Amino acid sequence: MSELLKELKLNSNDEHFENVKWQLALEISKVGIWDFNAETNTVFFSKPSKAIIGFEDDDAFGQNINDWNDRVHPEDKEQYFKDFKDHLNGLLPNYENKHRILHKDGTYRWVLDRGQYIEKNLLGEATRVIGTHVDITDYADNEQKIKETLDLIAKKNSKLQNFAHIVTHNLKQHAGNFESLLQFYDEAKNEEEKTEMLDYMKTLSKSLTKTINDLSEIVSIQSKPEETSEDIKLNIKINNVLKDLEYLISEKSANIKVSISDDCSVNFNKSYLYSIVQNLVTNAIKYKHPKRNPEILIASECFDTHTNLVVKDNGIGINLDKFGKDLFGLYKTFHNNPDAEGVGLYLVKNQLEAFGGSVDVESIINEGTTFTLHLPNQKIQH
């Protein structure tokens, strides 16, 4: 900088005064200049260009045509080279690319790289390209922070919507059970039947209290995502769900077989896992085949990193060719069942994905449906 100032003072009336003036302006602005010559296969980098990555005092930097290219972040290289070649081949009127470049100190800087060819050969091929480098690291970092904030807001909104659906869906199930029991109580022919209905209502009352407590827990953990999952013994949680659904299972004469080893554990949110299993079991009963009682198998395969939990039924099945793409959509129903809400499977998928899980489905019409849940055995970082 000082050498340019001296030259500017000594040669203020010289013919190359304008060139020195603009060069000084570029250095002050910290905009780097590069000049690529395709015929000689060489590239020139101005001092501000080299300063962006810590080589401003290194005259040797730039003598190798790939000095800059080799320092481009591996994830950015493909697009970096593509954009430049597209410009050389006339596919883009101007070259522009944002990429990370390795600094001398081992960190990466974000650079806005722009250029345009100024010379062509007789074949119309670009032979010389001049461009600029601008350090946009601060801008890129702020942009990333904004993106992370927006992603967090979107995730919070999704959790809030998910919670609202859990409340309406789960409480409606309890309300329906109470309504049925009260009706049966009124129709009871003797005290023994009334006592039996009261026992069922006590069980449902405990289940309702537990559901409300679980919903309260979901609210409390939204602000503590790192504590939302825990190691859960799968067979214990499955049996808890089946006990709470005991009346429904008995009423519909459902036969449920559980084949889960005692040492099989998953790392998941216990309220979500309860809701997932409850939804799949109640759906298996709700959509039973009219000519046979529900037969439901709940089994697991436990691996080091994940567990496959299978819920298989012999119900009416789902036409996956017709409805497969909408199967987990909100308010999507596929049968004429008056109790269908189109919420249960939506919750299953979203609750699974919220904690690193996924689900596969196989179904044959009039034979049954198999849901395979892929649950993590290790804590997922949020």
Description:
This protein is an alpha+beta fold and 382 residues long. The chain contains eleven helices and twelve strands. The chain has helices at 2-10, 17-29, 47-52, 74-88, 137-187, 191-221, 234-244, 246-251, 270-286, 320-323, 344-354, and strands at 32-37, 42-45, 95-102, 108-120, 126-135, 230-233, 255-259, 265-268, 295-302, 306-313, 358-364, 368-376. The protein has a five-stranded antiparallel β-sheet with strand order 2-1-5-4-3, with helices on both faces. Helix 5 packs antiparallel against helix 6 (191-221), helix 5 packs across helix 11 and helix 9 (270-286) runs antiparallel to helix 11 (344-354). The longest helix is centred in the middle third of the chain and has 51 residues, at 137-187. The radius of gyration is 33 Å and the shape is elongated.
In short:
46% of the residues lie in helices and 23% in strands. The longest helix is centred in the middle third of the chain and has 51 residues. It is elongated, with a radius of gyration of 33 Å.
Task: Map the helices and strands.
Layout: H1 2-10, H2 17-29, E1 32-37, E2 42-45, H3 47-52, H4 74-88, E3 95-102, E4 108-120, E5 126-135, H5 137-187, H6 191-221, E6 230-233, H7 234-244, H8 246-251, E7 255-259, E8 265-268, H9 270-286, E9 295-302, E10 306-313, H10 320-323, H11 344-354, E11 358-364, E12 368-376
Parallel strand pairs: 7-9
Antiparallel strand pairs: 1-2, 1-5, 3-4, 4-5, 6-8, 9-10, 10-12, 11-12
